[in-house]
Amino acid sequence: MSKAEKIAAFDPNSLGDRSNNIYGLPFTCEEAEVVIVPVPWDVTVSYSDGTSKGPQAVFDASMQVDLYDPLVKDAWKLGLAMDEISEEISVQAENLREIAKSCIDALEEGESPEKDDDLKKLWNEVNAGSRWLNAKVKTRCNEWMSKGKLVALLGGDHSTPLGLMEALAEKHASFAILQLDAHADLRDAYEGFDYSHASIMFNALRIPQVSKLVQVGIRDYCQAEVDIIDSSKGRIKTFFDRDLKQAQYEGASWGEQCRSIVSELPDNVYISFDIDGLDPKLCPHTGTPVAGGMEFEQALYLIQQVVQSGKKIIALDLNEVTPGEDEWDANVGARLLFRMCNMMAMSQGKFQ
Questions:
Q1: DSSP 3-state helix, strand, coil percentages of the chain (rounded to 5)?
Q2: At what angle are helices 328-347 and 54-61 packed, to 10 degrees?
Q3: Which of 12, 38, 109, 333 is the most exposed place for a label (fewest CB within 10 A)?
Q4: Helices 117-146 + 87-108 axis angle, to 10
């Protein structure tokens, strides 16, 4: 059956069909305009693990998402599909997570890899595994982009999109990262892990094509990260959650603040969304929840303003969705991902 025939036969008002792809949509990745690349990895998380189960949880919860998008009529016809969840990555993540835990336990006991060769070997093994993952992600994302697909990465912890960023750097001379997050993620090799989830933006800034990092909602950070921001000579612009909230208390509207945020961005924008950027009532099981944060529609309004400004979203990621005893976190993640993917496609003129 052709894509056109699938569209004609599909009822967007019916119950999600789990035998189809994500959101119950009937499209394969080859037919879809937007391909979601799942990365089940949470090796270096420093608080609670479980984000490696995020991609499957979001897929399962997506069957409950209604396909009506208020911004685009019949947006589902564009074609959205999720790539297969890699069993190879899942197995490697499970094995390395246990090794990383033993490394973290050793640190908490005052031990150091610089003084213990056996410990150093464990750290080296985790770092090597993370390099392997980055290469796998880069290759897979490049495969889809070479076929003209828009790519959205679904983690996993926040270390997972580095390979996608590196792939984009081969296709774009310059782009900015718009980071929605509770954490600055500017730590240098946090806990000794070169590719820690807490180091993703530190590593991203090593990519020369990343011209700017605009952070929104940041509310948990250390002095070293503040120093990096202050010494960045404008390459990093951080809109701290506290400052945004206090300005609102004094009368500033969110619309005004979004226009200020968007004005900091160049034409090409990569969106990196750690779900803990939202109020933790929306993601209570995420790995490192922090009080404060954005509401669901508040975050989407910001992304909408990016699109309406005429800027192009070249790719995106959603990370740190951790399933709990119910589907709440994944439900929120699935709805957020659907809307973000549609807005990315809109920014690239896919609905014209």
A1: 45, 15, 35
A2: 80
A3: 109
A4: 150
Q: Could you say which of 3.40.910.10, 3.30.420.10, 3.40.800.10, 3.40.430.10 is the CATH number of the domain covering 3-347? A: 3.40.800.10
Average pLDDT across each block of 10 residues of the chain; the chain has 352 residues. List them in order: 95 92 98 98 85 97 96 95 98 94 83 78 92 98 98 97 98 98 96 92 98 98 98 98 98 98 98 98 95 98 98 98 94 98 97 80
Residue 88 and residue 26: Cα distance in Å, rounded? 26
Which tokens is 17 given? 């069909």
Q: Give whole-number Cα distances, 120 to 8, 13, 102, 195, 339, in Å.
A: 58, 55, 12, 16, 43
Query: Which residue from 166, 126, 132 is spatially nearest to 270, judged by alpha carbons?
Result: 166
Residue with token string 């990093």? 236
Angle at 12 between CA 323 and CA 326, to 5 degrees: 15
User: Of 276, 319, 285, 86, whose CA–CA distance to 183 is shortest?
Assistant: 276
Q: Is the peptide bond before 156 cis (omega within 30 degrees of 0)?
A: yes
* Nearest-angstrom CA–CA distance, 250 and 262: 21
Cβ within 8 Å of residue 77, ≥6 positions away? 7
pTM: 0.96
Hey, is 306 helix, strand or coil?
A: helix
H helices present in the chain, as ranges: 3-9, 54-61, 87-108, 117-146, 162-169, 200-204, 223-230, 241-249, 254-263, 296-308, 328-347
Which residue bears the tokens 């792809």?
A: 21
**Phi and psi angles of residue 296, each rounded to the nearest 5 degrees, phi first:** -60, -55
Q: Residue ranges of the domains in the chain?
A: 3-347
CA-based end-to-end distance of the chain:
25
